[in-house]
Design a protein that fits this description.
14 helices; MetI-like fold; mainly alpha; single chain; 3 domains; about 65% helix
Length: about 325
């Protein structure tokens, strides 16, 4: 049998196309990293390599190496007062430290992580139960409900943000910080559930039903079967769905800008970066450093779980 070799021109063209796509995907992040490491005098430099490395923006955002500003002579005399306790001296000196209040990155980071992780986890739990019912349980109206779940994606977020906010106002949730947080958490769950259930439902159908039958013969009920059979065999799909839901909540801006606008302590990173971009404290290295740090959790998450995203853990589990 004659093996036909690919032409050099076709292989070269395909390789160039892949490199071009990778370049357009990676270049914005390389540019962000470059600007975040440059001093102000170097921002006009078209080269991606900084002339002089600048880590001050990252130190400021991460509250590393906070330096004290010059303390006035009158304050120094006050600190020499023997009647002052150590706590009082620390409280006075704290006012002359760079505390990062201009852009409290760590607070915004914590808010984003708590909200995104909670929404992704709850969405995953509900999607697992809903997808299992669509793929395994037989009941009247199942097909209509399954199609209706995706109906929410027919409307853009800009169309439903005002009705949802009115519902939160009339129910009293929008008046408190906890209520606003719960409102945005529920919204993120609703936004990610349709696709999560669709993805998991298709994956559950690939699992041989004979494995579940064997578990049920051994006395397992529905929930025990899901926990002991479906979840372990669907780990790649579950991780994928969790990452998808986490990314949606992590990068979401529209609903957060409406529901969390009155509660600055609950700002997420997209809201914080937008406020910084439009304030008098606009500094490009700080903005680019914040943008890079915002992308880090998702990148790390992919690197840690990429080996689990291979699928196919049921191969050889049963012979049909």
């Amino acid at each position: 049998m004659v093996v036909r070799r690919k032409s050099i021109l076709k292989s070269t063209g395909f390789a160039l196309l892949v490199l071009l796509i990778v370049f357009f995907a990676v270049f914005p992040f390389v540019e962000m990293l470059s600007i975040s490491l440059k001093h102000p005098f170097d921002w006009g430099n078209p080269s991606l390599i900084p002339r002089l490395l600048n880590l001050e923006a990252y130190k400021e955002l991460l509250a590393i190496g906070q330096t004290e500003r010059e303390v006035p002579e009158s304050i120094k005399n006050l600190l020499d007062n023997p009647d002052l306790t150590s706590q009082q001296r620390k409280a006075i000196l704290k006012k002359f430290q760079d505390t990062g209040d201009v852009f409290p990155f760590l607070r915004y980071f914590g808010n984003s992580f708590l909200l995104s992780f909670s929404a992704a986890l709850l969405s995953l739990i509900l999607a697992t139960l809903g997808a299992y019912s669509f793929s395994r349980v037989r009941y009247r109206g199942r097909s209509a409900i399954q199609r209706g779940v995706l109906f929410v994606y027919m409307f853009g977020g800009i169309l439903i943000v005002i009705p949802l906010y009115q519902m939160a106002v009339k129910s009293g949730l929008a008046a408190t910080a906890l209520g606003a947080f719960l409102s945005i958490l529920i919204i993120y769950m609703v936004l990610t559930l349709p696709v999560s259930m669709y993805m998991l439902g298709n994956y559950f159908r690939t699992i041989p039903f004979s494995i579940e039958e064997a578990a049920m013969i051994d006395g397992c009920g529905r929930f025990a079967t899901i926990l002991r059979i479906i979840v372990p065999l669907s780990l790649p799909a579950l991780i994928t769905v969790f990452i998808y839901a986490f990314m949606i909540a992590w990068n979401e801006y529209l609903f957060a800008s409406v529901f969390l606008k009155a509660f600055k302590n609950l700002y997420t990173l997209p809201l914080g970066l937008k406020e910084l971009f439009g304030s008098k404290h606009l500094i490009w290295d700080r903005i680019m450093a914040g943008s890079m740090l915002t992308a880090v959790p998702v990148v790390i998450m992919f690197m840690l779980v990429q080996k689990n995203l291979t699928g196919g853990l049921t191969a050889g589990g049963v012979k049909e």
